[in-house]
Write a structure and sequence with these properties.
The chain contains six helices and no strands. By secondary structure, the protein is mainly α.
Length: 152
């Protein structure tokens, strides 16, 4: 009986949590386990497309005025990992993925309602580029992003 119950629970978890991972398949694979297990809620179809642009740098033809390329968060995570000491890389990966999720979901919203804009992304990038301790830099960016989200 226990194995049957465990099997049902395992199947339900796969169905529930698998949808979130599938919905964000554009996020680098090693970040998947560090993100919320359910897909984010998007305000509009464009919100979802801009969120994908944030992570990949690619532009869907439906996105108006989108410029593909760098920077994008998948590549930013690689850069941060490469700059980190080997012993800190697991912590840097986890923090970078979570910070990316926080920033990306907000930045990709409509300009009229978002609280994190392109200027903020540039400031966050500057913070990360000029901090030798990557975890400390990610902490500063996380704190700054949360402060932006708390603004009215």
């Amino acid at each position: 009986m226990r194995s049957r119950t465990a099997g049902v629970l395992f199947l339900m978890a796969g169905l529930l949590f698998g949808a979130g991972a599938q919905a964000q398949s554009f996020v680098r694979g090693d970040c998947q386990g560090h993100l919320a297990p359910v897909a984010p809620r998007y305000d509009t179809a464009n919100h979802a497309l801009w969120h994908q642009r944030f992570w990949t740098g690619g532009c869907d033809p439906q996105i108006p005025r989108c410029i593909p390329g760098q920077p994008n968060w998948n590549n930013m995570v690689t850069t941060l990992l490469n700059r980190s000491p080997a012993a800190q890389r697991p912590a840097v990966l986890a923090k970078a993925c979570r910070v990316g999720e926080l920033i990306g979901i907000e930045w990709s919203r409509s300009k009229t309602i978002r609280k994190i804009d392109l200027g903020d992304l540039r400031a966050f990038n500057h913070m990360l580029e000029h901090e030798d301790d990557i975890l400390k830099g990610l902490g500063k960016v996380d704190q700054a992003a949360r402060a932006k989200l708390a603004e009215r």
